[in-house]
Design brief:
The chain is of the alpha+beta class. The longest helix has 22 residues, at 485-506. The protein starts with a helix and ends in a 5-residue tail after the last helix.
Length: 694
């Protein structure tokens, strides 16, 4: 059983990891694994083993050059040698097994007589128990025919084909799995205590061991995905070593700090230095005191939103309704989900925990026959509403719900609750997926179809696509928890397609791809480069604006790496999206006369420049902003921003600590409803993320 099925953490005693395109990039040798392993290995006594197609001398060269850390064992040559690194010698007992039925001269003769374009690999890849060849794009039928040729010659050997180009002929007992099994028996370690990782077909034998745990990196070949789909496999979101580190954190071999630790150090950046210099002059004790006061006030504000149906959007008692304002007195899927996620650190508070669960239940009880999560459910009469402004459905309501449900299950480990509602959530995923009408992996969003319901954007919207990526990962993880590894892998693999499309479509570059037809929008992208993911693309145009929340979530949810996130942080810091308070939702604002201006922005004067969704300051986004900065590794800056967030949450329209809905983008004056649930919840979450509150 994996830890996700019975909630018992597996005791990992031995790691068996492929090297090329798993621990290191094959072409560049780029890898963070050595740095991370050297820092965290003292915290455990797990045995590190490399299980690779490379020969021993080749692996030792990588170690001596400081690319890989020193292991305990090296299984080399696709399972044909086992090298005791500490004793500096090959384990001869294993090679004695391989001699049975192995005739190198006969192997070479049969391969030479095969009527297919097979070429021998260089001598450095050959040894007495291994013959390696290049055989490009061979079909399964061709590989079967080669195996038959050996069987006809009464030779029982092992044929391994991987990467759509590498053919290895080995002794019948030789492969990565058999070698690992032999080593485990020698060390008296059960396979259930072993963790393997790989990227291609020649790694599949490692995953064959009964009860072995596995990591498949995001860049893995389709052949390995197909082979491991029924097994206890963690499908990583990161490629190469980033995926391995992610898997090691998942199996608790490494602590969560390892994820952040792999970021490149940017503390010498001029912008960051300026921030740190300013922070140094601030009263640290005073900041922490206000932050902690705000934390207690946030809990009070959150509890004002507890109702029999779940979290209300804002405190009913403290906000008088006027016309459509009555909608605030509802359990909103979007607001409720963000509130549930933010308040999870308070899961031990029985009253809050009960409301978290009830919020999810209320929304599930009103799921439509085709899987749509309601936009909101009115508290006074338990009546659902599936639309927003102008009767347009709220696409992100369902996406946020899937993410929140996963986060709730991940904290509570309530597998029975998950099992009861997994079919409903699957229907929601299908309903959401139907909005990808052209099957390009991205959702097509109607105007006013998400949280910026009075702000004109549509089609492929960054914010929604980031959430769509995350929801596919979350649904896959929930299926993993139930042991459905095949479906889990399908969703997580699809999430990687979504990620690729997001990066390709929303991060413009002047680096044109030659000899490839491009769309109108892509041609326009070649006019310049950005330091952030742009807000929107359509088949006809695009928006160069910076959607603050979309870019923040992109890094928090792993859609962009730390290097891109750092570029984005420098840009947003430079243009002042966090001034006077964190954080304005868009930069630059839309002004009358701008092609993006809509006449309805003047309705109730809500979306004038620097108002509401048109550059207003949103404290709930500020909570995500603080976590974004902390994940980048700039904790001191994050604390300073959390202090500013405390200041805006303390500002009130009638009283202090009202945790208002939003504030004016330039004056910082609080506006909207008081005691907004998601403003309080995300402040609580940010405090815990910085470990200011234990």
């Amino acid at each position: 059983m994996s830890k996700t099925e019975d909630n018992i953490q597996p005791d990992i005693k031995l790691l068996s990891f492929d090297i090329d395109n798993t621990l290191i990039d094959f072409h560049t040798h780029k890898s963070n694994f050595r740095k991370i392993w050297k820092k965290y290995q003292s915290k455990n006594d797990v045995i590190l083993t490399y299980n690779t197609g490379r020969l021993i001398d080749d692996v030792q060269d990588l170690i001596h050059r400081g690319i890989l850390p020193e292991p305990d064992y090296i299984i080399s040559g696709v399972g044909t040698h086992i090298y005791d690194y500490n004793e500096k010698q090959v384990i001869k007992e294993f090679n004695d097994i391989l001699d049975d039925g192995w005739d190198l001269e006969s192997v070479e003769k049969i391969i030479q007589n095969i009527n297919h374009p097979i070429n021998e690999q260089p001598s450095r890849f050959q040894h007495a128990y291994k013959r390696s060849y290049f055989f490009h794009n061979a079909t399964p039928e061709l590989i079967d025919s080669i195996e038959k040729d050996f069987m006809d010659a009464e030779m029982h050997i092992n044929v391994v084909y991987s990467g759509e180009q590498y053919l290895d002929i080995l002794p019948k007992w030789a492969n990565k799995g058999n070698a690992l099994q032999w080593l485990l028996q020698k060390l008296n370690i059960d396979a259930s205590h072993a963790l393997v990782a790989g990227d291609s077909g020649n790694d599949s034998a490692m995953f064959d061991l009964e009860n072995v745990k596995g990591i498949v990196v995001a860049n893995a070949h389709e052949e390995l995905y197909k082979y491991t789909k029924h097994r206890q496999t963690y499908h990583a979101e990161g490629i190469c070593c980033d995926g391995v580190i992610e898997g090691l954190v998942y199996y608790s071999v490494l602590s969560e700090e390892a994820i952040i630790d792999k970021n490149k150090d940017h503390t010498d950046d001029f912008f960051i230095q300026q921030e740190l210099n300013n922070i140094a002059a601030e009263d640290e004790d005073g900041k922490i005191a206000l932050i902690r006061e705000g934390y207690q006030k946030a809990i009070e504000a959150l509890k004002k939103n507890i109702t029999p149906l779940g979290f209300s959007a804002c405190s009913i008692k403290d906000n008088v309704t006027n016309g459509t304002d009555e909608n605030y007195h509802s359990v909103w899927a979007r607001d409720g989900a963000i509130t549930v996620i933010g308040s999870l650190p308070l899961i031990q508070d029985e009253e809050i925990h009960k409301c978290q669960r009830q919020t999810l239940l209320t929304l599930l009880e009103h799921i439509s026959h085709n899987g749509q999560i309601p936009s909101n459910v009115r508290i006074k009469d338990n009546v659902p509403d599936y639309s927003g402004v102008g009767g347009i459905c709220s696409i992100d309501s369902g996406i946020w719900f899937v993410i929140a449900f996963y986060e709730y299950i991940n904290v509570t480990k309530d597998i029975e609750f998950l099992r009861k509602y997994i079919s409903d959530i699957k229907e929601t995923m299908r309903w959401l997926g139907a909005h990808d009408s052209n099957n390009d992996a991205l959702l097509e969003i109607p105007e006013a179809g998400d949280w910026t319901d009075l702000f004109g954007r549509s089609y492929n919207i960054l914010y929604d696509e980031i959430l769509w990526y995350r929801s596919n990962v979350c649904f896959g993880r929930m299926l993993e928890m139930l042991g459905d590894y095949e479906q889990a892998g399908e969703y997580i693999r699809w999430s990687q397609v979504i990620k690729k499309e997001i990066l390709q479509n929303f991060w413009p570059s002047t680096q044109q791809r030659l000899f490839q037809s491009v769309s109108f929008a892509e041609k326009q992208f070649t006019l310049g480069d950005t330091s952030y993911l742009i807000a929107q693309t359509t088949p006809f145009d695009f928006s160069w604006r910076c959607d603050t929340l979309g870019n923040i979530l992109a890094f928090l949810h792993g859609t962009v790496d730390s290097e891109k996130a750092h570029q984005t942080f420098r840009f947003m810091l430079g243009v002042g999206v966090n001034d006077p308070f964190p954080v304005a939702n868009v930069y630059p604002v839309v002004s009358p006369g701008d092609p993006d201006w809509r006449p309805y922005y003047t309705v109730n004067l809500l979306n004038l420049p620097n108002h509401y969704h048109n550059g207003g300051i949103w404290p709930f986004v500020g909570g995500f902003w603080v976590k974004f900065i902390n994940k980048l590794g700039f904790r001191d800056v994050a604390v300073s921003e959390l202090h500013k967030l405390a200041l805006i949450n303390k500002e009130g329209i009638t009283d202090a600590w009202e945790f208002t809905e939003w504030a004016h983008g330039t004056t910082g004056r609080p506006m909207g409803k008081a005691y907004q649930a998601w403003s309080a919840a995300q402040y609580i979450s940010a405090c815990h993320d910085l470990k200011i509150i234990k």
